[in-house]
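Field notebook, page 431. I keep forgetting to write these up properly, so this time I am using the form the group agreed on. The chain and the ligand, flavin-adenine dinucleotide, are recorded exactly as supplied. Prediction of the bound pose follows.
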Amino acid sequence: MLYSRRLDVRYTPDVLVVGGGAAGVTASAAAARMGRNVLLCESGGCFGGVGTTGLVPSFATFSDRENLLCSGIGLEIRRAACPGVPDDQAWTSIEPELLKRVYDDIVTEAGVDFLFFTKLCDVIAIDGRIDTCVFTSPEGMFAVRPKIVIDCTGDGEVIALAGGEFELGDENGDVMPSTLCSQWTGVNYDEYRKANVPEALEKAIADGIFTHEDRHLTGLNPRANGICGGNIGHIFGFRAADNRSMTDAMVWGRKSLLEYQRFYREYVRGCENITLTGTANMLGIRESRRILCDYTLAFKDFMRRMDFRDEIGRYCYPIDIHIMNTSAEEMNRFNQEYRGLKYAAGESYGIPLRALIPKSFTNAFTAGRCMGADRQMEASVRVMPGCYITGQAAGTAAAMAVTSGEARSVRASDLQKILYREGAYMRKELR
Ligand SMILES: Cc1cc2nc3c(=O)[nH]c(=O)nc-3n(C[C@H](O)[C@H](O)[C@H](O)COP(=O)(O)OP(=O)(O)OC[C@H]3O[C@@H](n4cnc5c(N)ncnc54)[C@H](O)[C@@H]3O)c2cc1C
């Protein structure tokens, strides 16, 4: 069928940011702090994406143990969301309700215009430019015509809907399993700290309590008052950007956590009274579309601790491709990559500006999980500090590109100076 209707063009912002996760919040705040008129549209009812609605329980490291690589807006967010935690602490538990309010404050104080319950459903691209973005909202559909767009949807939805180029998964299109994160109560931390969880897991697997013999258990993350965040279980065979697969994954995620509740209660010290109190309303998707950008940050760049002349920041998290199936070979592969390729203190890789510019369009940037990276590098830079670093850079670059309307008009050296002035980490030669 052919469907057509007349739409209001309700907004014509300098910068449109689609998706209000870790990347979208920092991108929109950075662009608004540069004095631009910024509209941020988020399909859910709060900011933070996987880190709040998705109940991901902790921030990965902000530091390479010598330098605070994620400083700038990301560090402002973490300081407000985790008061009293040292800046260089490796892992930090997230209180999702506090983090939601911190994000509200960051965008409000920056002067970002934002809308919740507003989902991008179509994009019209003309002659290599993103011309119009169409949204659905509780008031119906409307159009937005921005000068510059930033795709912070995590899944590269803007670029995919516009017909731009992206990659998905490995050579067979398979992606890492997703996880439905969860919240638990009734844990006695003092006892739990003494528990030998790997040994308990082996015993429970041998006793046949699990549907899948999954030995890659990320586990429980203590919050206050016996409450824990859970990054528990893997949903194998998950297909990214696939509505049916996402639906099935939610159902299995909820069901499988009952197996883990039994496991913790019966096998793990300190968890005899553990109770599942909630599961996320958003699936924890580790991997989906990776937008093809002017540069694809690649595994070789990780191995070479690469410096780029146009780098917008640096990061250091290991290659964290979770096991794709429950075989022993996969567990070995994971151990070699994640545990074996960890950087020493002070080591990091650069992230070039070109990896934030989608190659199919002239007026677009991207940041966060869907930026231009190969599978291995996506599995490093996708963690929240990586999303803050790329978000702040994409937002600042977008603000600089408004006058010309061309993403590629931004000079990396000018961007580096502004980012450094605004608190972002920049290696000495580029400040
Ligand atoms: C299970 C799991 C565990 C993890 N553990 C950690 C960890 O311990 N530490 C860590 O630092 N990182 C962790 N990560 C990684 C990290 O949380 C995410 O990769 C990161 O938060 C992604 O941020 P983002 O802004 O790119 O995307 P998202 O958080 O996915 O945000 C995208 C936002 O865009 C919105 N959106 C999407 N499509 C549309 C649309 N069409 N219209 C409007 N809005 C849209 C979504 O609602 C969402 O709010 C984990 C990830 C997962 C899945």
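OBSERVATIONS:
- The two ends are 55 Å apart (CA to CA).
- The chain has a mean pLDDT of 96.
FOLLOW-UP: compare against the apo run.
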